[in-house]
Amino acid sequence: MRTNLTRLAAALTGLLLAGCSGAEPPRAAAAPVVPAPVPAPVVPALAENPSMPPPEPTPSAYNPLNAEEARVLLRKGTERPGIGEYTDLEAAGTYICRQCNAELYRSEDKFHSGCGWPSFDDEIAGAVERHDDSTLGMQRIEIVCANCKGHLGHVFHGEGFTAKDTRHCVNSISMRFVPKHEPVPPKIVLRSR
Ligand SMILES: [Zn+2]
User: What is the pTM assigned to this prediction?
Assistant: First the structure.
């Protein structure tokens, strides 16, 4: 009997333990609900992403100019004829503004005028502004870079050099030549302008 009672007690204990352990699953079943809040941290993570890329660079200045470049570009000076590095250049490429990198002229529009300065019979659309210039006792049309207003030279009409009958007489020192297969540096646009 003692053995039977012992067995019975053991069986009852087993049932009780089973009952206790049986009560656990509902708690365990509730556990999967916990992951629900997980998406919440995703929102701030996404919100932080836009700040991850570096901020856009804001140009604060144009390309630095040496004394001679500043004399021509900023104070409307003129390069002596025949000394400009691009006067006789025939290579294919683009002429950009030395001060702000704006694309000004294409080599396809360049021609030999014999005047001693680089000559073009057309500009890249919108790249050049014209202003009346009555200095030196002459009525001329000054041309400046439309972006930075740097002095480029003068434009003349009616000389018959090319079919377009136009000659942009441009100081080499106001420009920089970029060969055809080289990347053109980005134009510098100051926010204040
Ligand atoms: Zn410019």
Answer: 0.70
